[in-house]
Amino acid sequence: MMESMDAARIIGYLKGKSILITGSTGFLGKILVEKILRVQPHVHKMYLLVRAIDAPSAKQRVQQEVIGTELFGLLRDKYGEGFDLFIGEKIVALAGDITGEDLGLDAPTLHDLAKHMDVIVNIAATTNFYERYDVSLDVNVMGVKHLCQFAKQCAKLKMLMHVSTAYVSGDSAEVIVEKPLKPGSSLREGVHLDIDAELRLVADAKKDLLLIGGDPAEQKKAMKELGLQRARHHGWSNSYVFTKAMGEMLLGQLRGDDMPVVIMRPSVITSVRADPVPGWIQGTRTIDTLIIGYAKQSISCFLGDLSVVVDCIPGDMVVNAMLAAMVAHSEEKQAVPVYQATSSLRNPVTYGVLYRSGGRHFEEHPRVRDDGQVIPNRHMLFFSSIPRFRLYMVLAFKLPLEMLHVANILLCGLFDKLYNDYSRKYKFVMHLVDVYGPFAFFRGCFDDTNLETLRSTMAMKSPEDEMFNFDPKSIDWDDYFYRTHIPGVLKYVCK
């Protein structure tokens, strides 16, 4: 039975703690760093591991990519001229790399960190669906291994929080429960997943590509295709979710019986809902392609079914769930708790709600061209299946492209540049459909019983407690999309 949870308990837990965070320059990492500093200024230190050649470069990167963002405005206002001094006392930038042995740190630094570390939060990941297989394995799998090896050296460690993704469970159309992945299990029946074999395979492939030589761009493409091929061989749709699944499996194998671990699996993470800056977002989420395309009127059709539920959750609510779970399971060394920070079970929302909210927003706040003319809003065509979309693309683009190709031959290459440009764009769109298509029609429903149980322990009796809200039932999706998320995407992404 979990103890009751409230803001005071979470804030009190963070006091005096030394916390190592990977992935702090990413969207979720920034929200976490800011939140801890804002609610508990007496945290001892936060060590931010970032890729950099030396300590000054690491410090500069943290300053520019983390502390210097608009997200830290409330803290900047609170401390005024003392802000830099406060940050200097609480934030330590470490030049390292989770893909390297000992996290890329020298022995004295590593030893000193291990003596004092209370909490490790692993958010670092490559989230590219079409990443090079070697890069995905290095970050999403080997990074977990190296972090586990470091964690075992931390005598005071109370928690290792690992952020994964809800989609590690594959493209199931059923209710997907919160349970650890079994090492060696594959989503394809009769196929065994051997992580060491995958590492050897990619190493051999890299050697072969180096021996063959040739265009570096073609070698890069070959490694990307290898990742896609291996993911689909085992039943996952892309190398991102495949390697994140392997990372979870490896974590389960390496933690042993004495390491307190929690796995947090968010679905699609969207802009900040409440604090510190509603609408703040970094990078383009899959659902934001629709918003940006509509805003720029750059796409006339979209692959997706408006009746399909899109599972998304605001970034600040994910961080709130992480902090609550961290406190609830601190120093627990039994089975690994898995939490799915999702919305499809408790408060489902469809693509149709997003589309209608966008239409409403752009009708009331029309976008204007540089010359002052209003950009007219056009309705998009939506295709409820990949075969229908492919047929449309063939009729609307492929056939005219072939006609242009014939004309180009007859006219001795007069349209070479035009044909090559359109051909490249057509292939790019069809490639996107291949890689991202499965997500457009994902019909699974994520069970969040574990997280609901944790939520039930939250007191929610004061404004401070509301600062740690992670209940998806409290979200009015239409209002959130219209007033917060869409304006945030337009301000921070669609500049």
Strand content: 5-15%
Low-confidence parts:
none
Radius of gyration: 24 Å
If strands are numbered along the chain, what order do they take across the biggest sheet? 3-2-1-4-5-7-11
- What structural category characterises the helix and strand content? alpha/beta
Oligomer: single chain
Overall pLDDT metric: 91
Secondary structure tally, helices:
18
Number of strands: 13
The major pleated sheet works out as: 7 strands, parallel
The end-to-end span amounts to 48 Å
Describe the structure.
This protein is an alpha/beta fold and 495 residues long. 49% of the residues lie in helices and 10% in strands. The protein is built from 18 helices and 13 strands. The protein has helices spanning 7-14, 27-39, 55-67, 73-79, 83-90, 107-116, 133-151, 195-212, 216-233, 239-254, 288-296, 315-328, 351-364, 386-410, 416-440, 449-456, 463-466, 477-492, and strands at residues 18-22, 45-50, 91-95, 119-122, 159-163, 175-176, 261-266, 268-270, 301-303, 312-314, 338-341, 381-383, 445-446. A seven-stranded parallel beta sheet has the order 3-2-1-4-5-7-11, sandwiched between helices. Strand 1 (18-22), helix 2 (27-39) and strand 2 form a beta-alpha-beta unit. Helix 13 crosses helix 18 (477-492). The longest helix has 25 residues, at 386-410. It is globular. It catalyses: a long-chain fatty acyl-CoA + 2 NADPH + 2 H(+) = a long-chain primary fatty alcohol + 2 NADP(+) + CoA. This is Fatty acyl-CoA reductase.
